[in-house]
Design a protein that fits this description.
The chain contains eight helices and no strands. The protein is mostly helical.
């Protein structure tokens, strides 16, 4: 059973990833159709990959909620001319929106895995794929290096959230308050890591580049 808090998180994540795709499309000077396609794939890409992995019909094929959320978000962004705002503000908005989507979809993916009685590894995989799949598609479409390959604690946040979710459920923490608290923890971790420029150690040799035979 999908509880209301997970439905809200799913819609919040969908709207947030829509905004991140919209901003990247506008930055790359795509036409209207290009922006719509990029925003759409960013918002639904991770969920579709996850559903294919577990051999389920993708939710977007049977539920109109995601599309209503995506196109409503796009319409509002277009009406207020969001893409014409100050570039510094848009950069910050992109990071916040992308981070919200990342954490919300991490929890959504972990919740689905728990409903399927998967083990910890399965929970982490579904949470990770759901969270980063859309952003991966987005970055590859615009020929950017995907965040999960270089950005501070991006994929790591998805895994941390999944692990916390799994063990919280094992301890019987099922309340809506705990779900929103986990969302706040994950979002704070992601934003602090970004603003403080925290990152995992990089694999380099003494010359600052990786060894290649």
């Amino acid at each position: 059973m999908i509880l209301p808090e997970f439905t809200w998180l799913y819609l919040i994540g969908t709207a947030s990833f829509t905004i991140s795709g919209y901003l990247i499309g506008a930055q790359k000077r795509f036409d209207v159709l290009g922006v719509v396609i990029l925003a759409l794939l960013t918002a639904i890409g991770g969920g579709m990959i996850r559903d294919v992995l577990v051999m389920q019909i993708p939710r977007v094929f049977i539920d109109n909620g995601p599309f209503l959320t995506i196109f409503t978000t796009l319409a509002l962004a277009w009406l207020i001319k969001l893409h014409q705002r100050n570039q510094g503000m848009l950069r910050k908005l992109f990071i916040v929106a992308d981070s919200i989507g990342l954490v919300a979809f991490s929890i959504a993916g972990a919740q689905m895995a728990m409903l399927m009685d998967l083990n910890l590894f399965g929970v982490c995989v579904l949470a990770f794929v759901t969270a980063v799949g859309g952003g991966l598609v987005r970055d590859m479409m615009v020929n950017d290096v995907p965040f999960i390959l270089h950005e501070d604690f991006y994929g790591t946040v998805a895994i941390v959230v999944a692990v916390l979710f799994y063990f919280a459920r094992q301890l019987g923490l099922n309340s809506a308050l705990w779900v929103w608290a986990l969302f706040a923890i994950g979002l704070t971790l992601r934003l602090v890591a970004h603003w403080r420029d925290l990152s995992l150690p990089k694999v380099e040799n003494d010359h600052g580049v990786t060894d290649r035979e």
